[in-house]
């Protein structure tokens, strides 16, 4: 049997944490042959709630769960970790300006980046879920100079999965019939879900829908889905967000299927005109070790404008955290 892999979840006592931890412990993150040791990082006032979740994890008697550690200290929580799911973040409060939001999150993701740099395992993979996810990932990455930058990623898989279902339902097919869908840019309302390269039944998805539906229904439905969930449920997406985090890491570790790709926000190498160093969503494949940006896609004027708008927002966020001294 293999040695347990340490998986750290921050914000472990939150609602995404509650939906995520049981699936990790049951083997859905790393597969049925890999035991996991869970490390739960929370702020001090939430430690007791995290202990309650740990009690329930114990009560599941998961064969793959080798142990649970709970801490409010990032250095302890990230020591020796191979997978870090950074879920805990500072939400935007009433009257909070963007600068305040970025500063508050800088206060979380800077020390976490430093702690990862100091103690994480050599094979560390980081997924940032906590918003603003792309820029939080950039902050953490910039404080971890000894970790290859490409190990820091941010989650757009929930947006991807939402888009897959929207087009599948529109065309009356199953979600498994949708391939090569892409979310470009920022995990925000400016994100661009791209149907022009997506395929359904071996044909372009965009060619099977009206441009009017694509522009005025599909794109806004995907981009504003988070708000629609809050409106309906009275709370933000939790189980679907946890599911997307599982999908992201599972795909990273096990690879994308031949001839298909997925979406993830990864450090730009300048591909598709996205400024180098920004953590932006791309069409990506994984070989089980690292993500690669799918190359050579033709981008028409409509897509170009949408990608540029979202990437411009990421550049502005980078400038803002730079001027705040956070990167
Ligand atoms: P909750 O408020 O339920 O939980 C957040 C938890 O993080 C709390 O328990 C809090 O104590 C903890 N926390 C705060 N600061 C911390 C720190 N410095 N170290 C460790 N833990 C800390 O939020 P939840 O609904 O679980 O959402 C978590 C984050 O995911 C939010 O930032 C949210 O905006 C973001 N989301 C991102 C999505 C994505 O697709 N990338 C979608 C879902 C979600 O909205």
UniProtKB/TrEMBL annotation:
SUPFAM superfamilies: LDH C-terminal domain-like, NAD(P)-binding Rossmann-fold domains. The active site is at 187 (proton acceptor). Keywords: NAD, Oxidoreductase, Tricarboxylic acid cycle. Residues 5-148 form the Lactate/malate dehydrogenase N-terminal domain. It holds the Pfam family Ldh_1_C. The keyword NAD applies. NAD(+) binds at residues 11-17, 105, 112, 129-131. Its EC number is 1.1.1.37. The keyword ATP-binding does not apply. Substrate binds at residues 92, 98, 131, 162. Catalyzes the reversible oxidation of malate to oxaloacetate. Belongs to the LDH/MDH superfamily. MDH type 2 family. This is Malate dehydrogenase. It comes from Nakamurella leprariae.
């Amino acid at each position: 049997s293999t040695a347990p892999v340490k998986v750290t979840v921050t914000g472990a006592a939150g609602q995404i944490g509650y939906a995520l931890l049981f699936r990790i412990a049951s083997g859905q993150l790393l597969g049925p042959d890999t035991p996991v040791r869970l490390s739960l990082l929370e702020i001090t006032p939430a430690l007791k709630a995290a202990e309650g979740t740990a009690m329930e994890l114990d009560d599941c008697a998961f064969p793959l769960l080798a142990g649970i550690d709970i801490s409010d200290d990032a250095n302890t929580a990230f020591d020796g970790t191979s997978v870090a799911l950074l879920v805990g973040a500072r939400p935007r409060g009433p009257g909070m300006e963007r600068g305040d939001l970025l500063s508050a999150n800088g206060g979380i993701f800077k020390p976490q980046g430093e702690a990862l740099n100091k103690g994480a395992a050599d094979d560390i993979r980081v997924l940032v879920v906590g918003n603003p996810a792309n820029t939080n990932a950039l902050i953490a990455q910039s404080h971890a100079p000894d970790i290859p930058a490409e190990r820091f990623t941010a989650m757009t898989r929930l947006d991807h999965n939402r888009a897959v279902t929207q087009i599948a339902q529109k065309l009356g097919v199953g979600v498994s019939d949708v391939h090569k869908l892409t979310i470009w840019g920022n995990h925000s309302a400016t994100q661009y879900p791209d149907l022009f390269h997506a395929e359904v039944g071996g044909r372009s998805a965009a060619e099977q829908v009206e441009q009017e539906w694509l522009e005025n229904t599909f794109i806004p439905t995907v981009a504003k889905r988070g708000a629609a969930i809050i409106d309906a449920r009275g709370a933000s997406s939790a189980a679907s967000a946890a599911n997307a985090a599982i999908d992201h890491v599972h795909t990273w570790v096990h690879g994308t299927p031949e001839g298909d790709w997925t979406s993830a926000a990864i450090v730009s190498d300048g591909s598709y005109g996205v400024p180098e160093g920004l953590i932006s969503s791309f069409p990506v494949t994984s070989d089980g070790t690292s993500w690669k940006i799918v190359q050579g896609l033709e981008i028409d004027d409509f897509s170009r404008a949408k990608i540029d708008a979202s990437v411009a927002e990421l550049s502005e966020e980078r400038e803002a955290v730079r001027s705040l001294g956070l990167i």
